[in-house]
Design brief:
By secondary structure, this protein is an all-alpha fold. Helix content is about 80%, strand content about 0%.
């Protein structure tokens, strides 16, 4: 939905509503990042301790989720700025 909202210019809804609608896809992105961290840790020649892997996976989950939401927020802001600039230019 994030990509579709940005491509179709669906920026009329409040940012909070867009972010709320993207929460689970953002968490899925974070889970994917965490799974990659765990997979790399398991195949690494010198496997780090379980607490290190858990901490890195937790960090990847949070960072992946926040990054997804941040990209959406920046994209919506850019589209709104462009729409405002176009309205000003045509007025």
């Amino acid at each position: 939905m994030c990509y579709e909202a940005l491509v179709e210019g669906d920026t009329e809804r409040p940012l909070a509503a867009l972010l709320r609608g993207e929460l689970w896809p953002a968490v899925r992105n974070g889970l994917g990042a965490a799974a990659l961290v765990v997979a790399v840790a398991l195949v690494a020649p010198a496997t780090p301790g379980p607490w290190t892997v858990a901490g890195a996976a937790s960090g990847a989950l949070v960072l992946g989720t926040v990054l997804h939401q941040a990209v959406l927020a920046v994209g919506v802001a850019a589209l709104r700025l462009r729409a405002n600039a176009n309205r000003s230019a045509t007025s």
